[in-house]
Amino acid sequence: MAPFRTQMSSEQTALVPASTMASQQTQAPAVGFASATGAGVGLGGGATVASTTALTAAAATAATAAGRTAAPQGFGQVTNSKRKQASVVEMLEYVKSLDIDPIKESDLLWIAEEAFNAALPPGWSEHQDEEGRVYFHNGATGESVWRHPMDDLFKEVVEYQRSIVKNGGFHLVEDEIAELEESIRRDLADWMELFDEHGEKFFYNRRTDDSRFDDPRMAVYHNLYARIKMVAKMKERLPVLARAPRP
Fold first, then answer.
1. pTM greater than 0.70
2. Can you tell me the mean pLDDT for 81-99?
3. Nearby residues of 157 by Cβ (< 8 Å), 6 or more positions away
């Protein structure tokens, strides 16, 4: 349920990019925010379960991916990363779900490995239903899904590498991310951090008149930073293309 706007206190501040938050007196979440051309910094994470080498070796004998099940009903118990206990065959099914051919596109398997071990965005948690199936739940919106909420982003990263190889450099991808950053800055400029008459903090969009308790910056920066980090790793894997001059 979204908060309604009550009497505003004198403590009000527009949301600003995370790169400038340090200079603000208002408390703000510590969220990474790098430029599209800067080097990525690792977010950290657990040990890799199935390595790219193992995926490549198993690709030739992998079975056809099994079909997806229906949407989850209700909520289960929070699991301890069941997603990261998959077999090699299950991993290959996951590779195909990212639109990667594990045999013909072995150079893209590293992206699937990164995606499989990706951290959940803020507000999302991993659960298990009564049949032991893993699903993901967003506590802020009430949404529950079978697929990891970052999977669509990693599908785009797969397309990034294909585009980079096809065009002989990173310039188009860098331009796209720069435009995305600028769009995010404009959109977040409409959000303000406010306090109601009881001193409870909420966030208000002065353009759309929407209000919410969770910080709208968190998921946006998480996804943007993951995208930037993956492109930085891609440059390490494709150093010749990373040094290619703009046409």
1. no
2. 82
3. 111, 115, 227, 230, 231, 234
